[in-house]
Amino acid sequence: MSAPATATQAKPEVITFTEAFSRALHDAMEMDPSVIMLGEDIADEEGGGIFKVTKGLSTKFGTERVKTTPISEQAIVGAAIGASLAGMRPVAEIMLMNFITVPMDQIVNHAAKLRFMSGGQTHVPITIRTRTGAGAGTGGQHSDMLEAWFAHVAGMKVVVPSTPADAYGLLLGCIFDDDPCLFIEDQLTRTQTGPVPVKGEIIPLGKAHVAREGKDVTVVGYGRPIRDAMVLADKLAGEGISVEVVDLRTVSPMDTGTVLKSVAKTGRAVVIHEAPRSFGCGAEIAARIQEELFDQLKAPVLRVASRDVTVPFSRVLEAEYLYKASGIEAAIRRTLEKRTQK
Amino acid sequence: MSANPSFTPATLLAIWRKARQINLIDEKFRGLLRSGRLAAVYYSPRGQEILAAAMGVHLQPTDYLVTTYRGIHDQLAKGIPLKPLFAEYYAKATGACKGKGGPMHITHPETGVMVTTGIVGSGLPIATGLGWASQLKKDGRVTLVTFGDGASNIGAFHEALNMAALWKLPVIFLCQNNLYGESSKYAKTTSVDNIGERAASYRMAGVTVDGNDAEAMWRAAGEAVARARAGEGPTLIEAVTFRFMGHYFGDPGAYIPKEEYEAHLARDPMPATRAAVLASGAATEAELDAYDAEVSAQIEEALQFAADSPFPDVGEIDIDVYGAAA
Ligand SMILES: Cc1ncc(C[n+]2csc(CCOP(=O)(O)OP(=O)(O)O)c2C)c(N)n1
Ligand SMILES: [Mg+2]
C-alpha cells in the first residue's frame, strides 16, 4: 500500500492549513487505533472529503475506521458520541459550520453534558471538525462563524487555529483530549502556508499563546484575524507602536490568565474575531478584562468584528460585512490616542 | 438460539420477577411522591413492566442500554442496583450520578446503562454509535435503545435507523408504543398504523408485538438479540402497550376517554402475567408472595440508604464539567 499524499516523507519547508489538518488526522490514526472518523464523503471512494482533508486516510486505514456516512448530521454526531462512550476517539466531520445547526441537540444536550450529568461516570472524547468563514462568496448559509454558541455551553471545548502548525498541534490536542471538542477550520485561508509542525507534537488545549510580544497594546482573539494582527504588528512597529498579539487558540475554556497578564502589562486591549460583533466571544473577553483590570486600563477595551447582518453574497457587500484589518489598525490607534488624554 | 425456542415456565417466572420488581418500585415511588417524601420528576412505567422485563432477560450486563426519562423499568430490567438508583432520585451524593443528573439522566455503566436522555428521540443516534464501536471491536455486545411512539416521528429516529441498517449494526430499537405522546393520541400524530412498518423503509427487520404478552415480547426480543449478536444487523421492535399513570406523575389524564382506559385496565399485563406464572406451575402463590416480601425489603433498605445519604457537597458543581486535563 502506498503512503497517502498527506503523509509525505520529505519535509517541505512550509505546509498549508489543509495539509496540516490532514497530517494531524493521519498521525492521530497512526498513533492510536481508537481514533476513527465519520462524515459525509470522507472516504477515498467519495474523493476524500469535499475539501480533501481526509484524502488517503480510508485507503491507508480502511473504510471501517474512515467511514463515509449518509447526509445525517444528527446521526453523525450521535454515533460519534455513542462510539466515544464505548472507548473510541471519534472525529466527526460536519462539512460546513452552518450544518451544525442540525445536530445541535446531540452537541449541546449530550456531548457537552454527559460527563456532568453522569457524575463523571462517562465522558465524550469526540472531535467535531467543521469548516466555515466569510470571504469566499458562499453567502448566508455557508459562511457563519458560530463558535460563540458552543463556547456558551459548559462542557464543550472550542478551538480555532491561526497557523498551519497550530492547526496540526491543536487538532491532535482535540483528538486526544477527553472532552468534546469543536475544531473550526477556516475555508478562506486553507491554502495559506506556514512553518511545518513537529510530527506528533500536541498543543495542549486551554492555553493561549503570546504570538508576538509588545508593550503598548494587546490585540487578543483567535483564528483568521490573528493573521491580520501579526502583519499589522510588523507594520506598526515601524512607527514605534509595540503590539502584543495574544492568540487564544482555545476559545473556550478561555485562558483568562494569559490575557490578563498581557493587558496588565500594556494597559490597552483590542479584541478581534471574525464572527459578528454582537453577543460574540469578544464581548466575553472584553468583560473579563474590565472586571479584573478596570483600574489599570488606559483606554476602553475595543472590539473589532464583522457586521451584525447575514453574510451577503455580492463581493462588495461581503467585504462590507467582514471585519477589516484596517479596522483593527484604527482600533489600535484609538486606544493609543486615549493615552494622551489620560 | 434455535429457530423456535420453547418458552419455559422458568423463563416466564424470570420475566415476572423482573417485572414485579419494577412494579413494586413504581408503586412505592408513587406513594412517596404523593406523600411528599420524594420530590422529583417522575414518569411512571406502570403498564410497561412486562415488555421491559421480557427484553431484559435476553441481555448481558455488558450489553448497552440507552433509554429515556420514562426509563426506570428499562434500567431495572438491565440490572441497575437499587441503592445508587434511589439515591439519585433523592438527589444525594451517593446517587449513581452523585445527584447531578437526576431521574431523567440515570447512568450506570457497570450495568450497561450508558445514557438516559430527556430529549425525545435523541438516544437513537447515540445507540447507533455504541453499536458501531461494538462492531469495530468485535466485542459481541448488543445495544438496546428504547423510546416511545412519539419519538418515531422525530428526524433522529429516521437518521439512526437508516445508518444502523446500512452499517448492519448490533442495535435493537425498541419502540414502546403506549399509544400517547404527552396528551396526543397515536393516530393524531403518526402516519402509519404500526411503527414496526417503518423498518421496511430502511430494509431493517421490523416487528410489531403485543408488549403486554410476555411470550410474544420474549420471542421478538430474543430474535432481535440473536440477529444482532450474529452480526446480521439491527431490528425495530414495536411493543404495543399502555401507560396507566399518564405522562408525568400527577397528570390528570383527562385526554384519555374513560372507556378506553378501562379497556386497557382489563388487559393490565401484571395480573395476567402473575396468573400465567401460577398456571404454568413455575411458582406457587406462597412463593410469589415470598418474592414480593423479599423485594419489598430490598426496596425499604435502599430507600433508607437514599434517605440517610448526604446531599452533594456544593463544591461538586465545579467537578465533571471538564476532565482532569482541563
Ligand atoms: C425533542 C423534544 N421535544 C419535546 C419534548 C417534550 N416531551 C417530553 S416527553 C414527550 C412525549 C413523548 O412521547 P413518546 O415518545 O410516545 O414517549 P412516552 O412519554 O409516551 O413514553 C414530549 C413531547 C422533549 N422532551 N424533547
Ligand atoms: Mg408514548
Automatic annotation (TrEMBL), chain A:
Has UniProt tagged this entry with the keyword Cytoplasm?
no
Cofactor requirement = thiamine diphosphate
Statement: the UniProt record of this protein carries the keyword Cell membrane: no
Listed GO MF terms? oxidoreductase activity
Q: What keywords would UniProt list here?
A: Oxidoreductase, Thiamine pyrophosphate
Q: Where is the signal peptide?
A: none
Gene3D superfamilies associated with the record: 3.40.50.920, 3.40.50.970
Q: Which SUPFAM superfamilies does its entry note?
A: Thiamin diphosphate-binding fold (THDP-binding), TK C-terminal domain-like
User: InterPro entries, per this entry?
Assistant: THDP-binding (IPR029061), Transketo_C/PFOR_II (IPR009014), Transketolase-like_Pyr-bd (IPR005475), Transketolase_C (IPR033248)
Tell me any Pfam family this protein matches: Transket_pyr
Q: Where is the Transketolase-like pyrimidine-binding domain?
A: 15-191
Among PANTHER family, the record links this protein to: PYRUVATE DEHYDROGENASE E1 COMPONENT BETA SUBUNIT, PYRUVATE DEHYDROGENASE E1 COMPONENT SUBUNIT BETA
Checking NCBIfam families in the record gives: PRK09212.1 (NF006667)
Q: What does this protein do?
A: The branched-chain alpha-keto dehydrogenase complex catalyzes the overall conversion of alpha-keto acids to acyl-CoA and CO(2). It contains multiple copies of three enzymatic components: branched-chain alpha-keto acid decarboxylase (E1), lipoamide acyltransferase (E2) and lipoamide dehydrogenase (E3).
* Name the record gives this protein: 2-oxoisovalerate dehydrogenase subunit beta
Species, as recorded: Solimonas fluminis
Automatic annotation (TrEMBL), chain B:
Q: Provide the transmembrane region boundaries.
A: none
The Dehydrogenase E1 component domain covers 34-313
**Known InterPro entries for this protein?**
DH_E1, PDH_E1_Alpha_Subunit, THDP-binding
Listed GO molecular functions? Answer: pyruvate dehydrogenase (acetyl-transferring) activity
The cofactor required is: thiamine diphosphate
GO BP annotation list: pyruvate decarboxylation to acetyl-CoA
| Stored SUPFAM superfamilies | Thiamin diphosphate-binding fold (THDP-binding)
Has keyword Cytoplasm? no
What keyword terms does UniProt attach to this protein?
A: Oxidoreductase, Pyruvate, Thiamine pyrophosphate
Protein's UniProt name: Pyruvate dehydrogenase
The organism of origin for this protein: Solimonas fluminis
